[in-house]
Design goal:
Helix content is 38%, strand content 24%. The chain has 438 residues and is an alpha/beta fold. The chain is built from 17 helices and 16 strands. The structure holds guanine (GUN) and fe (iii) ion. Guanine binds next to helix 3.
């Protein structure tokens, strides 16, 4: 008989998605106005309306959260932990911003203690914002990834990260070589991939900072370890796209550079994808690759307004990323809010259910993790947050006017931020409590 070391339930409103609303419509959304989430051994044992689930056996403690809402942990599909300290850096677009702020900031991560310090601040921020999983850039230094994984492991989090590969067009102290990048990545994969809840992503920064040789060796790693991820940037900014054309004159387009190296597949996540031709959209869809849309970053760096409807029509998988430090918030609520506004500027509507899907189950599906995270169905890992629906006077007042769950969701999309997140749980354990200790 297995021992049950954790057996408790939470009674609150509960909301999660069980399918893609673009396919399943309203049936994708499960909402219980008076719900119970029952956790055993770090996993969801049962979820449903209180009048079906209660009473529970006497051993199960039930915590009541009136006017709170339980949602699955957010999944941030693209973020740079080393850039936490340079969020809100003024005045530049992508390429100048990299030179002026990013590279000097990342140069400090050769120091393992510094890396660990920033990793802890970063993870605190994720959890304060109800984010329990992220696909994370390190720096070129292997120590940066060791520090990050060690910190995530201690907190029991499900995280994906990798060492940046960069062998040209950056300051010398930030360069590896095609060979050392390959070898260092391999050591990190052996050390971390599959340890507890940690997984590795091969992480060439973007085409301009890697030689074709380096990209090819990145593809080699993916062949050697087929369950790794590929994480990079794609077609974010006009100057970048032009530069890629100059650096890879024989490539058909930006994505072709990655395709030629064997980097485009179902476990590949491309941040941005703002400036793509029809053919690139088609090829992304065929490969079942994912675009991580990062709206706060696209607005902050003035990168452009992504055509989400076109990507979706092509069948490209979409997830949401904060892209901190180019992104301006760790909150997936703020990210959904800005995503909505970008589509407004294009004359399109982003349905709040769809946005919520991109931030939870859709992101989990893109990362091939929907069997263990993304919603609160029985058997899933118990990663969730408890939102205080009275976190601000305006929220209380505005929610009083809501007549259905769709309106509730859109108000949260628009007004939500870290103030709502009362507590965050990972594998059933409290890892953040607002204004207190975990
Ligand atoms: N493209 C290459 N590197 C970066 C980065 O650090 N941030 C963003 N937003 N785009 C990039
Ligand atoms: Fe980025």
């Amino acid at each position: 008989m297995t021992t049950i070391y954790d057996n408790r339930a939470y009674r609150a409103r509960i909301l999660h998605l069980v399918a893609d609303p673009a396919e399943a419509g309203d049936a994708a959304l499960h909402y219980y106005e008076d719900g119970v989430l029952w956790i055993q051994n770090g996993h969801v044992h049962a979820v449903g309306p209180a009048d079906e689930i209660l009473p529970l056996p006497y051993q199960v403690s039930v915590r009541e959260y009136p006017n709170h809402l339980i949602i699955p942990g957010f999944i941030d599909a693209h973020v740079h932990y080393p850039q936490t300290g340079m969020i809100a850096s003024y005045g530049e677009q992508l390429l100048n911003w990299l030179n002026a702020y990013t590279f000097p900031t990342e140069a400090a991560f050769g120091n393992a203690e510094h890396a660990r310090h920033i990793a802890e601040i970063f993870l605190d921020e994720l959890l304060r914002n109800g984010t329990t999983t992220a696909l994370v850039f390190g720096t070129v230094h292997p120590q940066s990834v060791d520090a990050f994984f060690a910190a995530a492991k201690e907190r029991g989090l499900r995280m994906i990260a990798g060492k940046v590969l960069m062998d040209r067009n950056a300051p010398d102290e930030l360069l590896d070589t095609a060979q050392t990048g390959y070898e260092q990545s391999k050591k990190l994969i052996e050390r971390w991939h599959g340890v507890d809840r940690l997984q590795y992503a091969v992480t060439p920064r973007f085409a301009p900072t890697s030689t074709p040789e380096q990209l090819k060796l990145a593809g080699q790693l993916l062949k050697e370890y087929p369950d790794l991820y590929l994480h990079t940037h794609l077609a974010e900014n006009h100057g970048e796209v032009k530069w890629v054309k100059e650096l890879f004159p024989t490539a058909k387009h930006y994505l072709d550079v990655y395709e030629q190296a064997g980097l485009v597949g179902p476990r590949s996540v491309f941040a941005h994808g703002v400036h793509l031709c029809e053919e690139q959209c088609e090829r992304l869809a065929q490969a079942k690759a994912t675009v991580a849309h990062c709206p706060t970053s696209n607005l902050f760096l003035g990168s452009g307004l992504i055509d989400l409807a076109r990507l979706r029509q092509h069948g490209v998988g979409v997830a949401l990323g904060t892209d901190v430090g180019a992104g301006t918030s760790f909150s997936l609520f703020k990210t959904m809010d800005e995503a909505y506004k970008i589509q407004q500027l294009r004359g399109q509507k982003l349905d709040p259910m769809q946005a919520f899907y991109f931030a939870t189950l859709g992101s989990a599906t893109a990362l091939k993790l929907d069997h263990c995270i993304g919603n609160l169905l029985p058997g899933k890992e118990a990663d969730f947050s408890i939102l205080d629906l009275d976190a601000t006077p305006l929220l209380t007042f505005r929610l009083q006017q809501c007549r259905d769950v769709r309106q509730l969701l859109f108000v949260l999309n628009t007004l939500g931020d870290d103030r709502l997140v009362q507590a965050t749980y990972a594998l059933g354990k409290c890892v953040h409590r607002r204004g207190g200790h975990g």
